[in-house]
Amino acid sequence: MNKSKTIVLAAAVAAVVDLLAGVPLNNLQGTGGIAFNPLAYTAGKNWEDEGVASKLNGIVSKPQVGGWYVNLDDADIHWLATSAAFTLFDRLELSYGYGFVNAKKYGDKSIDTNNLGAKLKLLDENAFDAAWVPAVAVGTVYKHTNSRTVKALGLDDEGFDWYLAASKLITQTPLPVLVSAGVLYSDEVVNGVVGHNHYGVSYFGNIDVLPAKNVAVGFEYKKGENVGGGISNHDYYNGHVAWFVTDSLTLVGAYAYTGDKDKFAKRGSAKDLGVGGGLVLSVQYQF
What we know:
With 287 residues, the chain is mainly β. It has a single domain, classed as monomeric porin ompg (Porin, Beta Barrel). Helix content is 9%, strand content 50%. The protein has helices spanning 3-19, 149-152, 262-265; strands at residues 25-26, 32-33, 64-72, 77-88, 92-103, 108-123, 135-145, 158-170, 177-189, 195-212, 215-222, 236-244, 249-257, 277-286. The protein has a 12-stranded antiparallel barrel with strand order 3-4-5-6-7-8-9-10-11-12-13-14. A two-stranded antiparallel sheet has the order 1-2. The chain is globular.
């Protein structure tokens, strides 16, 4: 390889590193992902190369924190979420997320949710020196809610999500593209905020295009689970723009749609439960 090609390749590699500076985010439950869905990447950067803290490299990552505000104006629901996550041995991500939901229109003025997550990365991206190999991870999230609707619908107040995710940054295209997909096994009702019932299988996916090294524009999809007892969740969608302000700070703006709000408001039907759509904002910081 001649010198000019080497320089171009090095520049491309550096650009990819910069592009990934804000990924994964802490999602609404605290898990490393985007908004609704997890990614196969684990949260947290390595420590600096100098000083005592550098000895922690390969043992424990720096932490990262995230905050979300979801304004589902259609249903007059306001959802605040905050979280922290880090990774052990570059394999095991641990996370905690707290959520506060005001759904006074439905008789729940103060819903508290707590989420404990663990993700194990099974395969590194580009493993075996193969450019087509995605990162692959499995994970779980324990969820608890104190929503009054739990009793009204005869649900449980706690449950687990289990998932398998694969994520890949494709750099051979004119613009870099991050794609991710996975399978979810969950008993959640309205993302676990309303409660938990029986387990069902669904799937999810993300795609983000990177038109500049500090901007990502993407789409996220989560298939609604059928959780038994005549209860099913509506599909979730969001379109988003992420701005990697610095290597540490990321800002996100999105519009999310979770289904017809009247399906939840009337409680006459438990099929395709949704809570409308609205604006989503997030601030993320990686130490």
